[in-house]
Amino acid sequence: MNDRLKKKGVDMVFKVDILDTIKQGDKTIYKYKLKGESLAVTKNTNEYETLINKPLPGFSFKDIDGNVIESKELIGKPLVINMWFTTCAPCIAEMPELNRIKNENPDVYFIAITFDNNEKVKKFLKRKTFNFIQIANQKQYCDLFTKQFPISIFVDKEGTIKKIEEGMPLVYNRELKEVTDKVNPANFEKALELIK
Questions:
Q1: Which of helix, strand or coil describes residue 67?
Q2: Could you tell me the pTM of the whole model?
Q3: How far is Cα 170 from Cα 81, in angstroms, rounded to an integer?
């Protein structure tokens, strides 16, 4: 199937996970889950894997209020860096869950980094709540990790990257047969446990 899609120019790859195998006489019935991903997502995932268990690239930034934030000063406390931008719908969709998770984890340092400028971020934050420490104007640092947003980088107390997660997936309502505006934080919360 993947080869046929590639020949048609479709930027998708499908993976099959066999959940159960049932034997009925001479028949075998497979219960499976089919997961589709864009090739770009698959490429990003492979690139993220090369960063796991490596030190977080150092930085010294000013947040949008002018306070200096240095990576070396964050050693000793778990760190989550969320990379986003102000017109990114998936970034905005996950913000309520990110705020909730931050409030429930006072022992973790939460930073949001964007390539947008200070003025744009401050204007956005007047309309939407995103209570991470906000660092703007950092395209070069974002480019070290991704060109697709949002992502979250989970860094342990020693300053080592333990996990990189893409944005929280939207929840599908089976009764209404539509995607909701809610997100599923399960993978994010599981990654968070790796650094606590």
A1: coil
A2: 0.81
A3: 20
